[in-house]
Amino acid sequence: MIPIKDINRSRSFPIVNTFLILLCAAVWLHQVGLDEYQENIFIYKYGLVPADVFQRPYTLLTHMFLHGSWLHIIGNMWFLWIFGDNVEDRLGRLRYLLFYIISGLGAALLQTFVSFVLGGEDVPMVGASGAISGVLGAYLWLFPHARILALVPIFFFLTFMEVPALLFIGLWILIQVINGILTLPFAQAGGVAWFAHIGGFAVGYILVKVFYTKRW
């Protein structure tokens, strides 16, 4: 299923969410302007390489703003645009920003741990997927019955259908878990950081309960 929009209007303009999208876009446009050699240096400097995390701990944060392809960044920013505004609306701007960063850190730490255990610790990780997975976890807890307009494949056809967030996000995290398990033997090959998605989602789902109830 491909989300088109959520039927869940925000009460305020999502300043932080928009800033995060623009920041990721700006970094990506910088990457596009680099040649292959320069981009490799840039990714290994600011991307998260598990083997180097103790020498360059700042990459636990900076890797969230780099991406690997047009499809990677468009997909991530599309999900963030659809689901992030409502979460920011409920948490407030400062709490949403902290929530986003902590979710991304949690995602990165789990993926780093898995890389050390299964191999692939020299493969750089980039992307906002982990933090956005945390946003999805928060959205599921805050708006389980919100309607998501999605493009759904039915046999050989695609059709628009409204589905509850519980179903859409529930299927999404199930796919992440299944793919994570299936790719365990091939962890050293790199590719999609499934456990970053799983870790970010878990952190977000738990953390939102604290951030939403606590008043600062």
Proportion of strand residues? 5-15%
User: Could you please say which CATH topology applies here?
Assistant: Rhomboid-like fold
| Spans of at least 5 consecutive residues with low confidence | none
Q: Please tally the helical runs, counting DSSP H or I stretches of 4 or more residues.
A: 8
Mean pLDDT figure: 93
Instruction: Describe the strand arrangement of the main beta sheet, using strand numbers.
Output: 1-2-3
Helix content range: 55-70%
CATH superfamily: Rhomboid-like
Shape: globular
Tell me what the CATH architecture is.
Answer: Up-down Bundle
Largest sheet: 3 strands, antiparallel
Assign the structural class, choosing from mainly alpha, mainly beta, alpha/beta, alpha+beta, or little secondary structure.
mainly alpha
Radius of gyration: 17 Å
The helix-strand sequence is EHHHHHHEEHH
Q: Work out the number of β strands.
A: 3
The CATH first-level class comes to Mainly Alpha
Q: What distance separates the N and C termini?
A: 37 Å
Number of domains: 1
Write the layout of secondary structure elements.
Layout: E1 2-7, H1 15-32, H2 36-46, H3 59-62, H4 70-91, H5 93-118, H6 129-142, E2 147-154, E3 157-164, H7 165-182, H8 194-213
Antiparallel strand pairs: 1-2, 2-3
Structural notes for this entry:
The protein has a single domain, classed as Rhomboid-like fold. It has a 3-stranded antiparallel beta sheet with strand order 1-2-3. The radius of gyration is 17 Å and the shape is globular. It is mainly α. α4 (70-91) packs across α5, α5 (93-118) packs antiparallel against α8 and α6 (129-142) runs antiparallel to α7 (165-182). A hairpin with a 2-residue loop joins β2 and β3. It is built from 8 helices and 3 strands; from the N terminus they run βααααααββαα. It starts with a strand and ends with a helix. The protein has helices at residues 15-32, 36-46, 59-62, 70-91, 93-118, 129-142, 165-182, 194-213; strands at residues 2-7, 147-154, 157-164.
